[in-house]
Specification:
Helix content: 25-40%
Strand order of the largest sheet: 1-2-3-4
Radius of gyration: 12 Å
Oligomer: single chain
Largest sheet: 4 strands, antiparallel
Shape: globular
Number of helices: 3
Structural class: alpha+beta
């Protein structure tokens, strides 16, 4: 289950295909993290999804689909360990 802010952000996504993909990633993720700055990230198979805590755009999500699950895991771990950009 996602928190209220994430649910509100997800409801604000206007492209239905994106909304469905984001929901699938969130509901089926193998790893999830919340950074001290409030950014959230999910890992699902070869997908990484991030929700930016401070974003002026109506869609605060950014996703990456990698060729392999290993590459997605590497990127997720980079997000986890990097406090400067994420």
């Amino acid at each position: 289950m996602n928190d209220t802010k994430t649910e509100q952000s997800l409801n604000g996504v206007t492209i239905m295909d994106n909304k469905k993909v984001y929901r699938k990633i969130m509901d089926n993720c193998s790893q999830y993290l919340v950074k001290p700055n409030g950014n959230k990230a999910w890992l699902f198979e070869n997908w990484v999804l991030i929700e930016w805590n401070f974003c002026s755009h109506t869609n605060p999500f950014e996703s990456w689909k990698f060729p392999t699950e290993g590459q997605a895991l590497d990127h997720f771990l980079e997000i986890q360990n990097n406090n400067e950009d994420y």
